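Why does residue order matter? Because the sequence determines the fold. Keep that principle in mind as you read this record.
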Amino acid sequence: MTQKLTPQQLTELAGRAKSIRRNIVRMVTEAKSGHPGGSLSATDIMSVLYFAEMNVAPDKAHDADRDRFVLSKGHAAPVLYATLAEKGFLPAEELLTLRKIDSRLQGHPEMKNIPGVDMSTGSLGQGLSAANGMALAAKLDARDYRVYALLGDGELEEGQIWEAAMFAAHYKLDNLTAFVDFNGLQIDGPVAEVMSPLPIPEKWQAFGWNVLVIDGHDYNAIYDAIQTAKTVKDKPTMIVAKTIKGKGVCQMENVVDWHGKAPSREECDLFLSVLEGIED
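Structure:
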């Protein structure tokens, strides 16, 4: 049975996602560097996780029973920072310090100084291994928190991902749910041309995972997949989320150049107006 969000929840998630996308554009513009494309493609997944599912809160940032999240594709730090600010872990004005000297908000997430960041990431391929450790620890400690991880599709070209895939299946980490942000593009071009990880769902199935394929911009589909994953026993779940690079800003969508390029001030103004739906 499909589990759906209420109309009120859908309205809230749309508002949260718009706010997160606006902050991504603003902070990357201010920093004059960063990774907007893959941050925008992952925004709807992050919105559902943080505002409709995960047991996390600023006043319980170190609670032993909180859910955990690992941004394995650490270069998409803007979406994590913007989401944490939206959730109240960070002051919104701090987002504009992204990549500045002495800022907590480095180009990749750092767990020691940023509340709400459960794992320092950035070297691609390592995040899933860290998430595995958290999920195994929960089982060994008899705790019922869940662990979520977000991977990039280009990241699947890293060998460590598949070692981690074997580990999670071998230890039956059914408290682990991972997402692949399958937007089809990495810094050098289409993933299918650079070093193809395709077919993605079949590979994860072959490694012993429960696999779900969804539209990564459909809030109900994201939410239902998360709920389905929670019912699966003795297998981790991989949710292959088909997304659009640069989602929400039509000038960025499916354009590989926006993987790691900052907008100019003029482009920023245009993109913010597009997100508000008031572009001429």
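The mean pLDDT is 97.
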